[in-house]
Amino acid sequence: MIKNKKIKVVEPFALYKWAKNFKRIQDRFYNNQYKLRRIQQIEDFITLNNFNKIYHIEETWLDLELPATMFTDSANDADLILVTHQGYSRYPCEGIIEQIKKWTDQCPKLYLCLNRHYININNRKIDLTLPSDFQKAITSWLQQSLSNHHIVDLSRNYIDYGQNFTWSLPDRHYFIEKI
Amino acid sequence: MESSGPTLFYRKNMKKLIEHFTDYPMVDDVDTRIQYIRYRMGRLKHQLWLRNRKNKEEILIDTHDKFIIDNLQSGKTCIFGSAGYYLEDLIQDLTVVEQWPIVKTFYPNAQIIKDRSEIAKLNGRVFDNFVVVNNRGDIWCELFVVEEHISKYIQAMKPGCLFFYSFRDTQIINWNRLNTDHNNYFLNFAKHIEKKYSLNLIWHDIKFAEKNKDGSGDYNILENPDTTNGNIKYVFEYETKTKNIK
C-alpha cells in the first residue's frame, strides 16, 4: 500500500495502440506533405502492370491512391494479391512459405511485403545455404523454398536504423508468381 | 485528349517521395505536440504513468516492474530512458534521466541529457541500482553500439551496483536472423559485456515466440514475448558477484 493506493501487478501487456493508424501518425511528423516511396512503388507496380482486381491484405492503413473499384473482396477473383499486413512476417519461416503457397493457389500473382526484423521470429535453424548478408539471405530463402515460383526482389537494400518507416509499410518487397 | 485511366488518377496529385526520416525536416522542432507523440510512441511505460496518476485506488505495474522492485538494493536508483517516473511512488531515492526535453514539461524532476556520459558527470559514481528497460534510444543499432551505451552507464555505478537491462531482439539491427542462433547471439553478447566491463551476469531471461498451428491450421501473428519490457533481459552486478536475484 503506497499513498493509500493498492499495488496491482499484472502480466506485461501490449501498450501499443496505434498499429492500424501508425502510418497516419508518422505522416503527421511531416505535416502530411510527403509520400512513402514504397507506397508509390506499389501503386506504380499495380498500375503499370495493368492489374485491375487487387485483393489487399492490410493491417496498417496505407491510404493507397488507387480507385476503390480496383479492389476485390475475394482472393479467388483477384489478378494480384497484395500483402502489406506485417503479421505474416511473424509467422515461423515454414509458415510464411506455406502461406505463400496458399495465396498463389488462389491467385498466381502475389506482391508480398515482409518486415525483415520479424523474420525467423521463433529462432529455428534453417537448413539451407544462405548468403551472410541478411537482405540477400531473405531473398535466397524464399527462392530456395518456393521451387515452382518465380521471385523478383523489388526491395532497396539498406541497413535499417529504425528510420525507414518499416512499421508503416514493411521494407522487403517481393513479386512472387506461381509458374 | 482521352484520359489514360488510373495512371493519371494518382499522378496528378503526387507528393514528394520520402524513404528515410531525415529526407525532409520533421515538424517536431516547432511542434511540441509532435514531440510528445514521438516520445510516447517510444516510451510505452508512459501509458502507466498517465493511468496511475489519475487512479486514486491503485497503482498498476507489470510483473517485470515487480521483479525489478523486489530485487533493488537500498540506496540510489537511476532509471534511464524508460519513463521511470511511473515508478516514483514505489522506489525511494529515484533519479529519472531522459534524453527528450519534452519530459521536463510534465515531470520537472527529470534530468535531461544529450549524451549518456552526462549521467556520471551530473551525478557522479553514486548509483546502487541502474535500470534501462527497452529504451528506444538504446536500440535500433548494432550490439556494438549497445555496448558503447553500457560503457557510459557503468561510469555512474558504484561497485556492487545492480544493472537491470532489457530490450527487444527485433530492434537490434544488422545481424542475420536466418543463419544466427538468436539465443546464443544475445547470451554471447552478455558474456562479452561481463568480461570487458566487470559486469557480472547474475540473471538472464531470453525468450522467443512459440509458434504452433491453431485448429484452423494457421499460426498466430503474435510478437516475441513482452514487447513492452523486451524479450532479452539481463541483470548484471558491477565488479562484485554477491547478490541473489529472486
Textual characterization of the structure:
The complex is a heterodimer of chains A (179) and B (246). By secondary structure, chain A is α/β, with parallel strands linked by helices. Chain A has a domain at 61-178. Helices cover 25% and strands 19% of the residues of chain A. Chain A has helices at residues 22-28, 37-48, 93-106, 134-145, and strands at residues 6-10, 34-36, 54-57, 80-83, 109-114, 149-153, 172-178. In chain A, helix 3 links the parallel strand 4 (80-83) and strand 5 (109-114). The longest helix of chain A has 14 residues, at 93-106. Chain A starts with 5 loop residues before the first strand and ends with a strand. By secondary structure, chain B is an alpha/beta fold. Chain B has one domain (21-238): Rossmann fold. Chain B is built from eight helices and nine strands. Chain B has helices at residues 6-11, 32-42, 46-54, 63-71, 103-106, 117-123, 143-153, 182-197; strands at residues 16-18, 58-62, 77-80, 94-98, 111-112, 127-133, 157-167, 199-206, 232-238. The relative contact order of chain B is 0.12. The interface between A and B is large, with 66 and 71 residues.
Summarize the structure.
The complex is a heterodimer of chains A (179) and B (246). Chain A is of the alpha/beta class and 179 residues long.
What count of structural domains of chain B?
A: 1
- Number of β-strand runs of chain B: 9
Would you list the SSEs of chain A in sequence order as H and E?
Answer: EHEHEEHEHEE
CATH topology of chain B: Rossmann fold
Query: Mean of residue pLDDT of chain A?
Result: 94
Keywords, separated by commas or semicolons:
heterodimer; A: five-stranded mixed beta sheet; 7 strands; 25% helix; B: 246 residues; alpha/beta; Rossmann fold; seven-stranded mixed beta sheet; 9 strands; 30% helix; 21% strand
